[in-house]
Design a protein that fits this description.
The complex is a heterodimer.
Chain A lengths: L1 E10 L2 E11 L4 E5 L6 H8 L7 E6 L2 E2 L5 H8 L2 E4 L11 H11 L4 H14 L15 H13 L5 E5 L7 H18 L2 E6 L2 H7 L2 E6 L2 E7 H5 L4 H7 L11 H4 L1
Chain B lengths: L11 H21 L1 H16 L3 H23 L7 H40 L2 H7 L4 H39 L4 H10 L3 H27 L4 H31 L1
Classes of the chains: A alpha/beta, B mainly alpha.
């Protein structure tokens, strides 16, 4: 289980997280939605210790991430796969070598590494793409390789940072399908950061809306779709709104 | 609620000591992770070192030629001409060989590293390394710095050799100096220290240039503009470090 408790984070004068509290239960996919620049990706980076909170704690299975020793943090990262917004593939390495990197770190034997690479590429419908280089791939294919790199590690958790941003609707649907498949076939707990509501409804078991640095509402898809919170409703329906024009109780 | 402030700011000396201590621990941890950096050492030695040989030799050749011509002009008959060999040898071995090679490589190698690592930083490849449980210092910094420390002296040695040869060829062909006279001058004030002094400097320049490149690369933010800005900073920082180290070694070793 991943738990955010009163997490604060700011960059210079800009407050990004302002008391974020959220539980992410095991075995489900929790989708964090919110406007661009509201700190969704920042929250995600706290889970793997890429960022440390200014105040508050982020726990993964009871381990406070920013208090872990480098070795313990390395072990924790071994349990978490991270799919970056723009895939973050290593340009100088082939697709196979990109996936191999994480596997080699875990000291697996060569046969297992080869098998994992082939399996993970098959799972994202890119069998035989080992020798290709990132520059030869489309945006959607790069994201699929990013997912393959994450799932090859057989992680307990997979964190997806804006997995469908910048993709056409068909490719987005393919990526959504892969995320659902990863949870069903590998049993991983997923955390997806997105502002794509169609994707959120497809892959999520629970949806949490991050607004002004804290969770505005969290619930099942049905609960979110039935919300009477004007901020959440305007967001999920894609209607522009002025926060200053909301009733006082709605902005609190 | 005082979430973002600390009660007492530590003084400058305490901050410096803390920072140096943390850097030492970080460096020791990165160096200890041999399994990560060792496979990248030889490729980096080839990329940063071998590929830099042509520019270093080009500079050394013309430095040798100019030094020989310059010494003739300076001596103007007042000093025996065989001193050309002494001036060319001594100057290239102890100063111009290491420093000019270092400055040239600060541009080539420092910019190369800063742009590469900076691009990796802004495209989240460095973050990706961390999520795969790699220490970016072990994976990116250590092999580059070690390659710099090992290869800068090799390149400098070649540059010194070629610079002296260029000076000799110039002296023989343009200054009416015989080979024996040039060699006599070359041996006149030669000490073995001249060589190792130059090579120690070159090793330290290698460390400074590669560290500047890595440091600026890892600190890059702000997309392509940030990569350009920090690449320039890496070159400037590398050049400044070379000049400061040059003075430092002169004070300490001479």
């Amino acid at each position: 289980m991943i738990r955010f408790t009163d997490v604060h984070k700011r960059f210079g004068p800009k407050v990004v997280l302002d008391g974020l509290t959220l539980d992410i239960p095991d075995g489900q996919t929790t989708v964090i939605i919110g406007f661009s620049g509201t700190g969704k990706s920042v929250a995600l980076k706290h889970i793997v210790g890429l960022l440390a909170p200014d105040a508050g704690t982020v726990e993964v299975d009871g381990r406070v991430v920013h208090e872990l020793s480098p070795d313990a943090l390395g072990a924790l990262r071994g349990e978490i796969g991270y799919v970056f917004q723009f895939a973050a593939l290593f340009d100088s390495l082939s697709v196979g070598a990109n996936i191999r990197l994480g596997l080699a770190r875990r000291g697996l034997d060569e046969a297992t590494i080869q098998a994992r690479i082939a399996e993970s590429l098959a799972l994202v419908d890119l069998p035989g793409a080992e020798a290709r280089f990132p520059a030869e791939l489309s945006g959607g294919m790069r994201k699929r390789v990013g997912i393959a790199r994450a799932i090859a590690l057989r992680p307990r958790y997979i964190l997806y940072d804006e997995p469908t941003t910048g993709l056409d609707p068909v490719t987005s649907a393919v990526i959504d399908g892969l995320m659902v498949r990863a949870r069903q076939e590998l049993g991983t707990t997923g955390v997806v950061v997105t502002h794509d509501m169609r994707s959120a409804y497809t892959v999520g078991d629970r949806i949490a809306m991050l607004y002004q640095g804290r969770i505005r509402q969290v619930g099942t898809i049905a609960e979110i779709q039935a919300t009477d919170d004007p901020v959440v409703r305007n967001f999920i329906e894609g209607r522009p709104f002025d926060p200053d024009a909301l009733p006082v109780e709605a902005t609190a | 609620m005082p979430i973002f402030t600390t009660a007492v700011e530590p003084g400058l000396p305490a901050r410096v000591v803390t920072r140096v201590g943390r850097s030492a621990v970080t460096a020791a941890r990165a160096l200890a992770d041999v399994r990560t950096w060792l496979p990248h050492l030889v490729p980096q030695m080839r990329r940063l070192g071998v590929d830099s040989v042509p520019i270093a030799l080009f500079i050394a050749t013309f430095t040798g030629i100019v030094l020989a011509l310059l010494s003739k002009y300076i001596f103007t008959g007042a000093v025996p001409l065989y001193f050309v060999g002494a001036l060319v040898g001594k100057t290239i071995m102890m100063e111009l060989g290491p420093v000019l090679t270092g400055l040239a490589l600060a541009g080539r190698v420092g910019a190369n590293i800063a742009a590469e690592v900076g691009t990796m930083r802004v495209t989240e490849q460095v973050d990706a390394l961390e999520t795969l449980a790699y220490n970016p210092n072990s994976y990116l910094v250590v092999p580059r710095v070690l390659a710099g420390v090992l290869m800068f002296p090799v390149i400098t040695a070649l540059a010194i050799l070629l610079g002296v040869v260029a000076g000799w060829i110039t002296a023989v062909n343009l200054l009416d100096l015989s080979t024996l006279e040039f060699v006599k001058g070359l041996k006149l004030f030669y000490k073995f220290k001249d060589i190792w002094f130059g090579l120690i400097k070159a090793a330290s320049f290698g460390a400074a240039v590669t560290l500047a490149g890595c440091l600026m690369g890892l600190r890059t933010s702000g997309g392509a503009e940030g990569v350009g800005r920090n690449t320039t900073r890496a070159v400037v920082l590398g050049c400044e470090a070379i000049l400061v180290l040059d003075a430092f070694w002169a004070l300490v070793l001479l």
